[in-house]
Design brief:
InterPro entries: 4Fe4S_Fe-S-bd (IPR017896), 4Fe4S_Fe_S_CS (IPR017900), Fd_FixX (IPR012206). It comes from Syntrophothermus lipocalidus (strain DSM 12680 / TGB-C1). GO terms for molecular function: iron ion binding; iron-sulfur cluster binding. With 89 residues, the chain is α+β, with helices and mostly antiparallel strands. Helix content is 25%, strand content 22%. The chain has one domain: Alpha-Beta Plaits (2-Layer Sandwich). The protein contains four helices and six strands; from the N terminus they run αββααββαββ. The structure holds iron/sulfur cluster (SF4). The site of iron/sulfur cluster has 12 residues, from helix 4.
C-alpha cells in the first residue's frame, strides 16, 4: 500500500478539550526555516498567508516536530484514551 493508504487505515480519537501540541504564534513568526512544514510526516503544518497553520487531529505522535522546531512548540502526548490508534495491514 502507498503511505497515504496506510495512514488512512489508522484511527484518530480526537480530544476536543485539550490540544497536545501548542504553537507559540509570536515565536513562530520569527522562524524563517519553518522546518515543521517539511518534516511532519502527516503534513499537519502548512503555510497560509505567510503564517504556519496546524491541525493536531491527524497527529501520528512521532515527535518529529518537537525535534525540528527551534523554539515555538509545546509538545505532550495526548491524554489517556485519545490520539492515534495504529492499525497494521
Ligand atoms: Fe506531525 Fe509527528 Fe509532530 Fe504529530 S508529532 S504533528 S505527526 S511531526
Amino acid at each position: 500500500l502507498a503511505p497515504e493508504q496506510l495512514l488512512a487505515i489508522d484511527k484518530f480519537l480526537v480530544d476536543d478539550e485539550y490540544r497536545h501540541i501548542v504553537l507559540d504564534r509570536d515565536k513562530c513568526k520569527s522562524c524563517h526555516g519553518r522546518p515543521c512544514i517539511y518534516a511532519c510526516p502527516a503534513g499537519l503544518y502548512n503555510l497560509k498567508d505567510g503564517e504556519v497553520t496546524f491541525d493536531c487531529a491527524g497527529c501520528l505522535e512521532c515527535g518529529t516536530c518537537r525535534v525540528v522546531c527551534p523554539q515555538s512548540l509545546q509538545w505532550e502526548y495526548p491524554r489517556g484514551g485519545f490520539g492515534i490508534v495504529y492499525r497494521y495491514g
